[in-house]
């Protein structure tokens, strides 16, 4: 009798798997969009993410404190600073000791830039609040999903424009004096996109979990089901 040789699948290295998951999570938390994705290959691994983001944040604060961001084309400068310094960090593996700081620093820089542009252009504060809330909800949803082992679809990062395209759109609009209507359209678009995708995904997951539980219950024998009920009653 001829037997087929068994193919032994090597187990993944635990350290490599941990590094892979950490990188994937931090890159998801960055919320890079189509521009960062397109330039990632050509820019390579140029700048370390934390120092570059800190320098960009300090530069934006300095411009704000100096009163330079008033009106007109100067309003594109904070966006340009972020793009020039932070975009080249998209290709990094984010495995450094302090690289976990990159997503919160980047989100702080994005939020601060939006606020600075909005105040300079007298954009209604409620509109700025809603825009920041929508982006913040998307960030929270991404973090919560990944901690449950559920990853948002890749197309969502592209459709959500990413931090870089969102800021580029707002910066150009602010420089042209059209920030309020552009911010309103962007806010409505992101609200619909993130809300519908999030609700749909969680409903789909809930249905899949319920179906899996139902299949498991059907596979149980009456004796196993009775033992499970008895155990739960004793614990209660």
Please explain how this structure is put together.
Pfam families: DUF5941. Keywords: Membrane, Transmembrane, Transmembrane helix. It comes from Microbispora hainanensis. With about 240 residues, the protein is an all-alpha fold. The protein has a single domain (about 15-215), classed as Four Helix Bundle (Hemerythrin (Met), subunit A) (Up-down Bundle). The chain is about 75% helix and about 0% strand. The protein contains 10 helices and no strands. The chain has helices at about 15-30, 35-45, 50-65, 75-85, 100-120, 125-145, 155-160, 160-175, 180-220, 220-235. The model has no long low-confidence stretch (mean pLDDT about 80).
Instruction: Assess the beta-strand content as a share of residues.
Output: under 5%
Shape, principal axes of CA atoms: globular
Q: What is the β-strand count?
A: 0
Task: Note the gap between the termini.
Answer: 56 Å
The H/E string reads HHHHHHHHHH
Kindly name the structural category: mainly alpha
Domain DUF5941: 25-209
Biased composition (Acidic residues): 216-226
Protein name: DUF5941 domain-containing protein
Pfam families: DUF5941 (PF19365)
């Amino acid at each position: 009798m001829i037997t087929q040789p068994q193919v032994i699948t090597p187990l993944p290295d635990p350290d490599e798997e941990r590094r892979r998951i950490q990188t994937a999570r931090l890159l998801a938390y960055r919320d890079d969009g189509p521009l960062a994705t397109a330039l990632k290959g050509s820019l390579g691994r140029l700048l370390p993410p934390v120092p570059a983001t800190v320098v960009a944040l300090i530069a934006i604060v300095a411009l704000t404190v100096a009163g330079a961001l008033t009106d007109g084309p100067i309003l594109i400068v904070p966006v340009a600073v972020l793009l020039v310094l932070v975009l080249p960090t998209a290709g990094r593996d984010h495995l450094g000791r302090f690289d976990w700081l990159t997503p919160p620093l980047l989100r702080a820089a994005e939020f601060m830039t939006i606020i600075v542009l909005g105040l300079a252009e007298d954009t209604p504060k409620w509109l700025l609040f809603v825009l920041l809330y929508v982006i913040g909800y998307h960030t929270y949803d991404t973090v919560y999903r990944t901690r449950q082992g559920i990853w948002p679809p890749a197309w969502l990062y592209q459709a959500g424009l990413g931090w870089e395209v969102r800021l580029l759109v707002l910066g150009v609009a602010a420089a042209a004096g059209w920030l309020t209507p552009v911010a309103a359209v962007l806010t409505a678009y992101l609200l619909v996109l993130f809300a519908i995708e999030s609700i749909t995904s969680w409903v789909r997951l809930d249905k899949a979990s319920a179906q899996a539980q139902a299949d498991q219950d059907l596979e149980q024998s009456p004796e196993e089901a009775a033992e499970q009920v008895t155990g739960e009653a004793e614990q209660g």
